[in-house]
Task: inverse folding
């Protein structure tokens, strides 16, 4: 039967033979026979493109597409560079991917969010607000310190004034006591002189 195939199929074609070679056993049950020696086979091996060749073909196809649709290139350049076969291509592709808007990338393509640089004007405004707060706080501290110093100075002044008044009062009291003592001694002298004078009169 195999000899008839070249006569029926006169041109090159591919035919897939399907089915099982089944025969009947002694017990009347089907019996599977896989005897490869009962047939002849032609073996054909096709070597597909290598991994590097596939990447080159993929990059070439993407480049052709970008030529027909230039607006799509900014959104596919990371994939395009990733297909290149030179050192640093993968790192550059990752860097380019971070420049693509998040809404363009799929959920599985979005990496960690890139920290954005703060607005210089916002930073200056925050620094100015912080400086004003510090200045206001310092001013309040100085005023509180000044008030405390003034209160302390006033208390010291009042204490010194009280001490001076007490000293003056004490001095006045001492002077008054001295005058009273002098008056008492003067009175005693006058009384003694009067008594002596009376005594002299009585003797005379």
Result:
């Amino acid at each position: 039967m195999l000899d008839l195939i070249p006569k029926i199929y006169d041109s090159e074609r591919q035919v897939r033979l399907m089915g099982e070679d089944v025969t009947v056993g002694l017990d009347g049950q089907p019996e599977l026979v896989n005897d490869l020696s009962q047939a002849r086979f032609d073996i054909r091996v096709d070597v597909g493109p290598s991994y590097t060749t596939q990447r080159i073909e993929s990059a070439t196809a993407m480049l052709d597409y970008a030529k027909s649709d230039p607006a799509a290139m900014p959104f596919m350049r990371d994939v395009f560079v990733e297909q290149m076969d030179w050192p640093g291509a993968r790192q550059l592709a990752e860097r380019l991917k971070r420049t693509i808007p998040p809404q363009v990338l799929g959920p599985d393509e979005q990496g960690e969010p890139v920290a954005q640089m703060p607005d210089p004007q916002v930073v200056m405004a925050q620094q100015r607000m912080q400086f004003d707060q510090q200045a206001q706080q310092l001013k309040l501290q100085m005023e509180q310190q000044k008030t405390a110093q003034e209160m302390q100075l006033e208390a010291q002044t009042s204490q010194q004034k009280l001490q001076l008044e007490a000293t003056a009062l004490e001095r006045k009291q001492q002077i008054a006591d001295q005058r009273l003592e002098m008056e008492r001694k003067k009175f005693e002298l006058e009384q003694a002189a009067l008594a002596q004078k009376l005594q002299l009169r009585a003797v005379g």
The two ends are 203 Å apart (CA to CA).
